[in-house]
Amino acid sequence: METLLGKTDMRKMMSREEINHNVECIKKQVEKFVSFEGENAAIIVNNADWLLDLKFVDFVREIGSLFSVNRMLAAECYKQRLETGLTFFEMSYMLMQSYDFLYLYNKYGCKLQMGGNDQWSNIIGGVELIRKIGKDDSFGLTFKLLTTKEGKKMGKTEKGALWLDPNKTSPYEFYQYWRNIEDSSVETVLKMLTFLPIEQINELSNLKDEKINEAKKVAAFEITKLIHGEEEAKKAEEASNALFNGTGSLDNMPTVKLDDIHISIVDAIIQTGIAPSKGQARTLISQGGISLNDEKVSDTNYMLSEKDFSQGYAILKKGKKVFYKLEN
Question: What span, in angstroms and rounded, lies between the C-alpha atoms of 128 and 102?
Answer without folding.
Answer: 10
